[in-house]
Every structure is written in C-alpha cells, then in structure tokens.
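Morning. Coffee machine broken again, so started the prediction first thing and wrote up yesterday's gels while waiting. Chain of 334 residues, entered below exactly as on the submission form.
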Amino acid sequence: MTSQALRHAAADVPFDDTALARAAELREAVLREISRVYIGPTGTVELLLIALLARGHVLLEGVPGIAKTTLVKAFAATLGCTFRRIQFTPDLLPADITGTFVLDLESRRFELRRGPVFANVILGDEINRAPAKTQSALLEAMQEGQVTIDGQTERLDPPFMVLATQNPMDHEGVYLLPEAQLDRFMFRLTLGYPTETDERRLLRTYSAPVEPVRALIEGPTIMELADAAARVYVDDELIAYIVRLVSATRAHPRVRVGASPRASLLLMNSAKVHAMLRGRSYVIPDDVQAIAGYVLEHRVRLLPEAELDGPSPEAVVAQVVAEIVADTVYATLP
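Came back before lunch.
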C-alpha cells in the first residue's frame, strides 16, 4: 500500500489534528533547547522524545566523559516533571532504589520511606556498575509502572521513564546487564566521541556559564500526547511488515536468539510516535525502518562463531539487523 493509500485509509479513523501540531512544535522546541547545552547528534534527542511519548525506556552506552549524563539531565529538565538521579555502584542495594519501611518511634508504626524510583524521570547513571540483584530493582518499575516493597505494591505516577547510562563492557568494574533487563529498554543508543567541529563548539559553549534548560512541557500534556500517539493509524500490511522484520531476526543463520514479541510491540509503538512527530496520523514503512535498528540490535544474540565476523559482536549485530531491514520487503498482503 502506497503512502497516499495509507493516508486515505487513516482518514476514516478519528484523530485530533491539533495533537499533530503540538507534537511537531514540541519536537522543534526540545531539540532547540537541548542543543544549547548538549553538543551532539539531534537524532539522539529525538529518540529520547519518541521513547517518552511511546512510554518506553532508553539505555545509553558510551565511554565516560561524552556527556551521556548531561544529555539525560537536559532532556529531563525540558519536561517539567520530577527527576531523580541514581548513581549505581557495586555496594548499592535494591532498597536504596525502591525504598523501605522504617519504624516511626512516635507512632510505633512502620512507614514507607520512598526511594528515588518514585519520580517521573529516573537517571540510572552507570547502571552496569551494580550487580544484577540491584539492577533488577528497576524491572518491575519499568514493565508494570509499580514497585513491590515488603509485599506491598505501590503505583508510580505517570509519566514514568528510565534513562540509564552504561559503560562499555570491556571496561573494568562493570556487570553485564541480564537479557531480561535489556529487553525492558525500548532503545539502546550508542554514543561516540564528538567530531572535531562539535568538540570546538563544546569548548566555546562552556567557556562561560550556560543558562539552565527551561521546562517546555508538563506531565499532563505528555500523557495527552502519548495517548494521541497510541491512536496513530497502523495498517494491517504494516503490522505484517513489522512481524516479518522481527521474525527475520529469529531465523537469521548467524543469530542464536532473535528479538522477542515485545520488540514487535515496541517497534510499532515507536513508529507511531515517529510518524506523529512528522505531522502524520498514520505510519508508513519509513517510520518503521528509521526506528528498527534501535529497537532490535540489543535484543539479538549471535552464534559464538558469528561474533568473530567483525571488529566486535555489536558491529556484527548491527550489520545483521541492517541486512534484515534491507532484505525484508514491504509488500501488499494477499
């Protein structure tokens, strides 16, 4: 089905066109505001916004000192929501994240002392410096929007988003994130060193005090836009295309474990937001293809012998996913 046919099909589905204008304005405003303090690809900032409106979480990977934390803090500041930073260390305990019940000596009752997870935006800084037991404290929060403390379940106020940074796995003092935890992240973004031009701009920018980032949007508006994104039209042919893409990761000869059905759902949801930020109330194949690599790459596990086919396993996975996206044809259903 062509883009024009998709547009006609979407016309039959009710959609608030004012949400398209608000989303496009928000995209431009966020990119402009963050560019004052973060010197790097604007595409990375847009992916954070897509994950936010798709109710997802993001893992940022890169060597120390490339402004991962600066990016996350600047993005959170534009949202006008509650923000908490958790510095992961080897001695961090799960209760340090979720909170615990403490005895109030006056009332002689146990009262909940809430941990930093009770916020709208959580920065998990260097998440892979803590062991798996502590990392897993975020699993229920990321998937269910709630935490269980001593058998008592506490809901987290929406919007809720985890933005975690991690150091490369070849660095000392890091722990591999379990596959179950990686699968909870909608995107994994790998940040590299800036270009010489960007690094010169960075030095000029920070040669004097920089004004703080302004809040551009509040929690209720975020939820309204997220609800609007959920109503973006996805044709049956595109659903079939997404399923074929994800299924191809499971059948590839160099792959041991392919992407899960959760990947199909997250790919569809993020493609909806990608379309809405571009002023469309319907998804086209370009939306899916633009997002596919960020959703699929960290969910693919190679066969041991395939890991040696490139400079690193991550590079081989990226090549495999790029081949799948290129080879999987978007075709009309019979």
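The mean pLDDT is 90. Going to sketch it on the whiteboard this afternoon.
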